[in-house]
Amino acid sequence: MLTSSMKKTFQPMASGKFPVIGHYLNFRKSPFHFFQKHTAEQKDLFWFDLFGRKFLVLNHPEAIKHVLINKAKNYTRKPNYQFLEELLGEGLLTTEGEIWKQKRRLAQPFFNKEQMDGLFGIIENSAINFWKERKENQLFDLEEEMSHLALSMLTDSILQAEMDFHFDEIKKHLHFASKHLTTKRFKAFNWQKKLPTKIRKQGLASIEILKEIVAQIIENREKSEHLHNDLLAMYMSTSDVDTGKKLNAEEILDEVMTMFVAGHETTSVVLTWSMVLLHQHPNIFEKVKSEIDGNFQGQPLNGEELKNFPYLKMCIQESMRLYPPVWGFGRKALEEDEIMGIPVPKGVNVNIPVLFLHRNPSYWEKPLTFYPEHFLEEAVKNRDKLAYIPFSAGQHRCIGEYFSLVEVQIALIHLIKNYQYQIELPKTLDLELLVTIKPQFPISFELTPRKSS
């Protein structure tokens, strides 16, 4: 039972709280409208309640800096990623402390700009082949196709030589595994997560098959004398600079699965919403097209070449503002604390709804408008850095940020240079907040080769 002093702790509390169930009904009905309403009413910080479990919502850069940077050791992310452990094992996304530090130290060199430049050709090849294989004047499901493109670029970069044999299998089983894990995450009670549903049964079987495929590839690589230039080869050849220890096969498997899950879905979301927003804003699209036509004549793309497309990059950044790759994430307080004057008891959950931070009118000139000028140098300089965190912040900031941005830039350059695309939007563009932001209803698109190409 809460003491009177503890009851005072949970203020300000979101309006509309019911006895016992708290805000469960409104939250379950639409997480988007729930957060939209209460971030507008309460502004910076507020509490909400689900069956007695209290959640503190942070919508202010100072509070986010406190949790993700200044007091990061007091706020664990592990409970929020436990649902992924079935698939990812002990990878970068599911570990903390010394184990995580060792893994991050091993992986960091692979994801710096110099190392990534060695993968540009692989990524570009995947994008070129994808667009060429799409038949003209045929309707496609945008979300499904961008998922295919993102997975194609990623798998070629991780397991280049083996993809001709395994792509369709990986695509199918990754879909079933992700569906199971997402469903599991959003169950209110632990007993619901263990019910023998079709989704769970299918998902668990797919997880086993995925692990078997990747484990076999790793085993074959260990026996092979051929040289490979992909992320798997980098992981297999590296060793810890402090201890000299190399990753064993199981550790490599966990990291490969982590790259599949973390790298595929997020890139797919950025591609989807970037294409939608450019379609909705033809004047901005024309500026992007003009920039691409003026700077891209078919030469191989690399880190230096991409600097010639600053407006395209601003559009992608603005797309990630309005539709961030992961719409929100959480932490759990290990010890009592205080955030911006609000007491935080030990064990409570802290939620950072990135989607609404990115639309907070305190930090954005046009919070609900697609406005790439938000990312002009002067605007960025004058804005709090933690008002924009599409890849999180602090020590757990996404290691694949640059890699994902490169994939999106290359894919869009080849699309816009060579094709016209038309999008058919549903009557209402409602959002479904899962791990990433999905359109609630299908979006279709079709391609037509540009006559000048």
Task: Report what the structure shows.
It is a single chain. This protein is α+β, with helices and mostly antiparallel strands and 453 residues long. It has a domain at 1-83 and 326-389: Uridine Diphospho-n-acetylenolpyruvylglucosamine Reductase, domain 2, CATH 3.30.43. Helix content is 53%, strand content 11%. It is built from 21 helices and twelve strands. The strands form four sheets. The chain has a five-stranded mixed beta sheet with strand order 1-2-8-5-3. A hairpin with a 2-residue loop joins β1 (45-50) and β2. The longest helix has 32 residues, at 249-280. Residues 1-6 have low confidence and may be disordered.
Describe the structure concisely.
The chain is of the alpha+beta class and 453 residues long.
- Taking pLDDT < 50 over at least 5 consecutive residues as the criterion, the unreliable ranges are 1-6
Q: What shape does the CA trace take?
A: globular
- The share of residues in extended strands comes to 5-15%
In CATH, what is the class of the domain at 1-83 and 326-389?
A: Alpha Beta
Regarding quaternary structure, what we see is single chain
Residues in helix, %: 40-55%
What is the radius of gyration computed over CA atoms, rounded to a whole number of angstroms?
22 Å
* Largest β sheet strand count, sense and barrel closure: 5 strands, mixed
Q: Termini separation (Å)?
A: 70 Å
Number-wise, the strands total: 12
* CATH overall fold name of the domain at 1-83 and 326-389: Uridine Diphospho-n-acetylenolpyruvylglucosamine Reductase, domain 2
